[in-house]
Amino acid sequence: MSEPDHATAGKAFRAPTPFSLRQLEYFVAIAETGSIAGASIATHASGSAVSEAISSLEQSLGATLLVRRRSKGATLTSDGRVILRIAYRLLAEAELITGSVGDRKFSLAGPVRIGFTGTLANHILPDLVVEVQAQHPNIAIEHVIGDMPTLLEAHDAAELDLIVTYDLDFIPEFSKRKLMAAEMMVLLPRDHPLAKEPTISLEALASHPMVLLDITASRLHTFELMRGRGVTPLIAYRTDDRELHRSLIQRGLGYGIQLNLDQLPLPSELHGVVYLPITPPTPTLGVLVAWRSNPLPPRVEAVVGIMQSIAAPS
After folding, report:
1. Exposed, middle or buried, 47 (CB in 10 Å: 0-12/13-18/19+)?
2. Are residues 157 and 274 both part of a single domain?
3. Where do the HTH lysR-type domain residues begin and end (predicted)?
4. Residue environment code for 49-83, b if the CB has 16+ CB neighbours within 10 A, otherwise e
5. Cα-Cα-Cα-Cα dihedral sign, residues 304, 308, 311, 314
6. What is the band of 1 on the pLDDT scale with cuts at 50, 70, 90?
7. Structural domain of residue 276, as residue ranges?
8. What pLDDT digit, counting tens, does each position of 152-190 carry?
């Protein structure tokens, strides 16, 4: 009589999983493309293979995951939406296994979808795309720009891997990493009576017209700083376009306050606009990358690392 295998003694027998990772890949592809035809293109499989795999997956789970309409593609049922997030997590864990061995430069592949608030994409995305292409040529960066409610909804629907935003009381259940910290600065037209000063206080601006950068994070931070100094701004114009904001100031229509995301040395003058540090110094505002507290797939982890390296001050 053979001796018991002590490595397995006392462990419950695990029944085979009634579905495969390939079935989950097809299911996720349908959810992302909206049709079986789209999923077949995305996964390089025949439409019949995708359809049969999904039918088998539904039979194994005892649930209908998709509603198939010939003219409208496929939409997720309530059960399908529940399974989708779990499927993403399982596929991420599988990628963690395969991405842990071999030539990592080429073993990391697939899209990484990033949502940016405000104008943060302008300061991070171009360098990020270049560096990712150089270090991981099989990773494709996709991006959207929107407000936080829109990005959170997209993230919860598994349409985004990461969100890049400002560190303003961000949702605590998200994991996050700091990318940079920027200070606020005052922008003045070159011929403004205060433009020759080496620094400027918010109190000194109280009687001057303001051009407000009306991006949510910037606006809230600006108002909080000014309220803390007992200053009520005289808002003459407002815009959510950073370049238009600078142009209005250049034409002498008021002063402005922006985050120094470009890490300009202060004071500076560029294109008829003077940039001055605020005195006394104001608290910096952090920029972070965040995601729901799940293990990151290796390709996404690699992109986060590159994002941190390019955002860090030199």
Report:
1. middle
2. no
3. 19-77
4. ebbebbeebbeeeeeebbeeeeeebbebeeebeeb
5. negative
6. very low
7. 184-283
8. 988 887 789 999 999 886 788 899 999 998 899 999 999
The b-or-e profile of 286-301 (16+ CB within 10 A means b, else e) is bbbbbbbeeebbbbbb
Q: What is the CATH number of the domain that holds 165?
A: 3.40.190.10
Q: Is residue 229 part of a domain?
A: yes
Cα–Cα dist 174/207, whole Å: 41
How many domains is the chain partitioned into structurally? 3
Q: Are residues 234 and 222 in the same domain?
A: yes
Q: Which residues contact residue 282 at a Cβ distance below 8 angstroms, ignoring those fewer than 6 apart?
A: 183, 184, 225
The answer to whether position 9 is within a domain reads no
Question: Whole-model pTM above 0.70?
Answer: no
**How far, in Å, CA of 60 to CA of 137, rounded?**
37
pLDDT digits (tens, 9 = 90+) for 85-109: 888 888 877 776 766 555 555 567 8
Does some domain include residue 203?
yes
Half-sphere exposure of 223 toward its Cβ, with a 13 Å CA cutoff?
10
pLDDT at 290 over 90: yes
Per-residue DSSP letter, 4:
P
Q: Which amino acid is at 235?
A: I
DSSP letter (8 states) at residue 169: S
Which has the closest alpha carbon to 88: 265, 294, 235, 246? 294
User: 312: which 2 tokens?
Assistant: 């860090």
Please state whether beta strands 273-277 and 268-270 pair in parallel, antiparallel, or not at all (unpaired): antiparallel
Average pLDDT, the chain: 87
